[in-house]
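Tutorial sheet, problem 5. The two components below are modelled jointly, 484 residues in total.
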Amino acid sequence: MIPCPALQVRGVTPTVSMREVKEALMANAAPSDPTRPSRLDRRKARTRQALIDAAVELIAAGRGDRASIQEITEAADIGFGSFYNHFQSKDELFATASAEVLERWGQMIDRACGEVFDPAEVFAVSFRISGRLGWTHPGMARFITGSGLGLLDARTGLAPRALRDIRAGQKAGCFAALDADVALCAVAGGLIGLLRLCQDHPERMHEHVVDQLAEAILRLLGVPAGEAARLATLPIPEQGRW
Amino acid sequence: MIPCPALQVRGVTPTVSMREVKEALMANAAPSDPTRPSRLDRRKARTRQALIDAAVELIAAGRGDRASIQEITEAADIGFGSFYNHFQSKDELFATASAEVLERWGQMIDRACGEVFDPAEVFAVSFRISGRLGWTHPGMARFITGSGLGLLDARTGLAPRALRDIRAGQKAGCFAALDADVALCAVAGGLIGLLRLCQDHPERMHEHVVDQLAEAILRLLGVPAGEAARLATLPIPEQGRW
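Model answer (structure tokens):
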């Protein structure tokens, strides 16, 4: 690795390998399409993504706040020094990784609820899809159980959407008056319990366990028991559609 | 500090201060009442308790799994080396500290429910008292929010009691069939949400917020809405009785 002031000025990286220098020069020498990311840009994006993926795995393993930068760069298979080319601190990386997973999860739910308008039904579909993550998206499920209720501290992603849905349901008179933040904690606790069960005792986990809890959560929110039972057994969009 | 083989053989402590040696000799020289703990025993018990209290504070601050032994002994105001006279590892100390707080909490609930026999009412009283910890026992409340759902991993204390109560309610037909572990996660999530609200926004916290969530949790467990509302507004035993 050599210091490379020319690249440093361009804000690329303070220390780069000869290979990176060559790639940068080649990318600059032959800009076949200026709107297309250069090979260096793509390489940087891959390294950044490797760090984010490593952070997601560490959060999933419940080590989100204990892993060292050394451990993170080893898991991402990149040099220790490269870390600071992409993130200023461990906290920044973990916040970025959380935001990315939560956003992916939120978008999945938005797609599944695309044609649903009743707030209680939106909530039911969201919860029933999230409860199925244990087998539809095991990596995301491990991320959720590894995060625990710390999940709700995120300002982007699912917590704000869930709060918005609870408040919309209360405004529409579908849900009882209940402190929305507190209700959300109970909902998140139930979801984490489901996903843990799926990890620790997969033999006890079936779709109807998820739907039973969805029904119970709807009752908690104030949906009458009969209506909660109906909403929790409606067909949900097929997995390919979310 | 000097190594003291005589005391080591007796399993007292591998390194002791001169003061401890003197106290031990005095305690042995004049055993006025052999059933009464000697001054050394009392001193050891105090040091042990100081370590447990420090661990409880660190868990409450959300640092239960990150604090170093150095940090723990500094918080307990004892010498670093004394740690290993009382606990073999940090994990052992934290497990002991958790068990102690959970047991205290469990006994408080048992006292409050002494004259209640209906399983749904037992659950209601337990939850309503626990939700009031934010102002009746702020230290215990901080311990609960600091532990998060990790609280449920404890084999002693409240989690097994709560599971027992949920199963008793299901057996008696008061509660719906629902995976009890999953239901417990939702209950714990709701309780943690309440106690966090009390810490972060004390101005939003009132007894009726606790009772509203107790009512919602009873509905979640399958208690009919009208009965849940009744149980959540019954008088609860006065604080002096638990």
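Marking note: The radius of gyration of chain A is 22 Å. Full credit if you identified this.
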